[in-house]
Write a structure and sequence with these properties.
7-stranded mixed β-sheet, 7 strands, about 180 residues, globular, 5 helices, alpha+beta
Length: about 180
């Protein structure tokens, strides 16, 4: 899909961000999780108030993947203190790469990943890291293919369900 455009999300786009966030999360995680836990998480994580605060945070950035001006996925990055765990100035966290189900396998995730790596290079990050649900084998394979290695695990709460995320990291050399 050569016509994918990656564009920074602005505050005026918060409603579209909320819509794609909810849809992609449901598509990715509905199987294997209860409706109650999914609804609770979505209500909290993707409220307009929370997304607005995240968009206003200078240490976070969102990017849409657009095809023919339609949002088909998005990327969320965290820098410095906004990182969910490591909080190191030399690191960049990829908190989310989500793609609408109908576009999975069409290189949209790769385009968003490449944008993350471009930003990592711009800020001279020494490493990029992320957490991925241990049961999301598709995502784990994607990140391994792109040079990430497992380095730890952490707990992720989906409603009242305690889940394990695999933490993965990619070390960057000078000029990566």
């Amino acid at each position: 899909m050569e016509n994918i455009i990656v564009e920074k999300v602005a505050l005026k786009d918060v409603n579209q961000l909320q819509k794609v966030s909810k849809q992609t999360f449901l598509e990715a995680f509905s199987v294997g999780n209860s409706q109650v836990n999914m609804a609770k998480y979505i209500e909290e994580a993707f409220s307009l108030e929370k997304l607005t605060a995240e968009l206003n945070n200078e240490q976070s950035a969102f990017y849409f993947a657009l095809l023919d001006e339609n949002v088909i996925g998005y990327l969320k990055l965290n820098f410095g203190e906004s990182q969910t765990e490591l909080k190191e100035d030399k690191g960049l966290e990829v908190e989310r790469i989500y793609v609408l189900q109908e576009f999975l396998g069409k290189k949209v995730g790769q385009v968003l990943y490449e944008k993350a790596m471009e930003i990592a290079d711009q800020i001279n990050a020494e490493f990029v890291w992320l957490g991925v649900w241990e049961e999301n084998t598709r995502a784990i394979s994607f990140y391994k293919k792109n040079g990430f290695e497992e380095f730890d695990k952490h707990i992720f709460w989906l409603g009242d369900d305690e889940q394990t995320d695999i933490m993965m990291k990619k070390e960057l050399g000078a000029g990566s």
